[in-house]
Amino acid sequence: MEVFYPLSAQEKNDTTTKMAAPMSNVDEIRNRVILGEFGVKNVHTTDYPGNYPGYDDTWDLEKFKKTFRIDIVHSDEDTLEFDMIGIDASIANAFRRILLAEVPTMAIEKVFIYNNTSIIQDEILAHRLGLVPIKADPRLFEYRNPEDQEGTEIDTIQLQLKVKCTRNPRAPKDSSDPKELYLNHMVYSGDIKWLPIGNQADVFADAKIGPVHGDILLAQLRPGQELDVVMHCVKGIGKDHAKFSPVATASYRLLPEITLLQTIEGEQAERLKRCFSPGVIEIQNVNGRKVAKVVNSRLDTCSREVLRHDDLKNLVKLGRVRDHFIFSVESTGILPPDVLVTEAINVLISKCQKFLTELDMAEMD
């Protein structure tokens, strides 16, 4: 697998220019999804062996290695945008679904409520606690045996929430603001504390185990009300419950392709620019004329607004590159997005290995 880092503006322009080159009808059916006024064409993959005379579509590992690549477009602490090029939609979608449902994380599974005198019912409180993202590396823990009543240091994280609301003796007499009248009346996720089990205090001395975000409101209290709760976090996957999903969102879209079939200038060029997202079409001065040019089709949302204009719809061709997927991954903060992508790849590899093993066993039988 090849990994490439962000393209320069000139490289992006060169890519857009290359995509505008004409192609045969067969190549268009094989490689492009066409956006029409009343529908979308060439939606299904058709480049399977024997479907097109003169084309060798048999799968070849060496050919795949040459054409497949990943380009990192943007990366920060919580989000990652990258291009996956030269892959079939079925594999890209499998990768997306693995990110959503099969990359393990740690989440609150058991809630032991010793005291809850707030107005929130025990079940609602437990549900809210379960959805709080917990910052702990799941790779350092094992899956807990469902039959085990008590967790151990290798499969369980223990947390505690203990808060009691009291009156503020220093509050102004004429105040009606709860922030001034009461102490600890707002219970946040930051009030959840880690209680190490066994040797966890030494093993995870450098790890800040606890909620990812400390500003998640869990409950509101009034004087005399209190919460005393102990929670057990276990390892799980999003397929079992959404609270284990490591991503806030994981999605992809095909790379848009906009081809101008002839020169568009003047007032038409201005209207054409307004039909697309900002940055897609720019007006350039060519020998004193205002001429429209596709600058960055990647920014287009494929709204097809241009097809509403009778004098423009036949001058522009809208499409999408079938094997160019723009992935967007947003982490919940449990693990960095680049780590999540790596773990998803490992899950996909293990699935393939399991499938091959079962095939071998079937042949032996």
Identify low-pLDDT runs: 1-21
Helices and strands, in order, run as EHHEEHEEHEHEEEHEEEHEEEEHEEEH
Shape: flat
Largest sheet: 7 strands, mixed
User: Helix- and strand-based class?
Assistant: alpha+beta
Number of strands: 19
Helix share bin? 10-25%
Radius of gyration: 28 Å
Q: What is the beta-strand fraction?
A: 25-35%
What's the end-to-end separation, in Å? 35 Å
Q: How many distinct helices?
A: 9
Mean pLDDT: 90
Q: Would you mind describing this structure in some detail?
A:
- With 365 residues, the chain is an alpha+beta fold.
- Helices cover 25% and strands 31% of the residues.
- It has nine helices and 19 strands.
- The strands form six sheets. Strands 1, 2, 3, 4, 5, 16 and 19 form a seven-stranded mixed beta sheet that branches.
- α4 (89-101) packs across α9.
- The longest helix is centred in the last third of the chain and has 28 residues, at 337-364.
- It starts with a strand and ends with a helix.
- Belongs to the archaeal Rpo3/eukaryotic RPB3 RNA polymerase subunit family.
- Its main location: cytoplasm.
- This is DNA-directed RNA polymerases I and III subunit RPAC1.
- One of its GO terms (biological process) is DNA-templated transcription.
- Keywords: Acetylation, Cytoplasm, DNA-directed RNA polymerase, Nucleus, Transcription.
